[in-house]
Amino acid sequence: MSTHAASAVRSAVADLGDISLAALVEQAGLQTRVDTKFIVYPAVLTALIRDLGDDVKVLDIEGRRQFRYSSTYFDTEGWRTYRDHLQGRRLRFKARTRHYVDSDLCMFEVKLEGARGRTEKLRTPHSPRAAHTLTPAARTHLRSVLADAGIREPGPLEPRLLTQYRRATLVHAGREARVTVDSDLVCSGEHGTRSVLTDRVLLEVKTASERDPILAALGRLGVRPVSVSKYCAGVALLHPEVPSHPWTAVLRRHFAAAA
């Protein structure tokens, strides 16, 4: 069921010009980029669109402007990848499948995070029917990516967290930048399921550099970045026995009601 936040996003993007998936990938594929996250009320999204003006386009596929995503994250029994993020290791990674539910396409992705906050995403096709499984092909891809990055291969990885949400994607026409708008976030794990951010949205601004007009516009609106990912927030919420101290303030401010 769609929440107030998802409905507000739908209204905010309804009158925007559209961009096709092929055009978006050509203009702002950004597999290597700087990611900056914000958690805001939908009114901030509306104000951002107004501030950026007519150059903002929204991804539209056959009349649809919000899309259902499902991501399964893999980690070790001791939470190796989560703890690497917790400790702020200079080189770290996440391993996940991403299922594009509406088109029933699936990819296995390794997200590398390195110096100066840059993120690189390396992906390979994956069967939707095996979205919760680390297949032999996925293991081979992971091993190759980590070897090239100089990251020690972890112990056995298992599915540890499932995130499901709705996403709209905005691009600033003519520039290599995009904004994803996530709502209706649900996190599931072995200890249960929680719906979070039901009244807010997660903006992820993906840019080629640390300076961008979209980031400047959000600064003018008085919002500040947050440093927690959906994966780390989900683990912290569902597993209170695991340390989460770097994100305590963000979790209390934005996730406390849901928790």
Describe how the helices and strands are arranged.
Elements: H1 4-13, E1 17-19, H2 21-28, E2 32-40, H3 42-52, E3 56-59, E4 67-75, H4 80-86, E5 92-100, E6 105-113, E7 118-125, H5 136-149, E8 158-172, E9 177-189, E10 192-196, E11 201-207, H6 213-220, H7 230-238, H8 248-255
Parallel strand pairs: 1-3
Antiparallel strand pairs: 2-7, 2-11, 3-8, 4-5, 4-8, 5-6, 6-7, 8-9, 9-10, 9-11
Helix pairs in contact: 1-3, 3-6
Q: What does this molecule look like?
A:
The protein is an alpha+beta fold. The protein contains 8 helices and 11 strands. It has helices at residues 4-13, 21-28, 42-52, 80-86, 136-149, 213-220, 230-238, 248-255; strands at 17-19, 32-40, 56-59, 67-75, 92-100, 105-113, 118-125, 158-172, 177-189, 192-196, 201-207. The chain has an 8-stranded antiparallel barrel, surrounded by 6 helices. Strand 6 (105-113) and strand 7 (118-125) form a beta hairpin. The two termini are 19 Å apart. The mean pLDDT is 89.
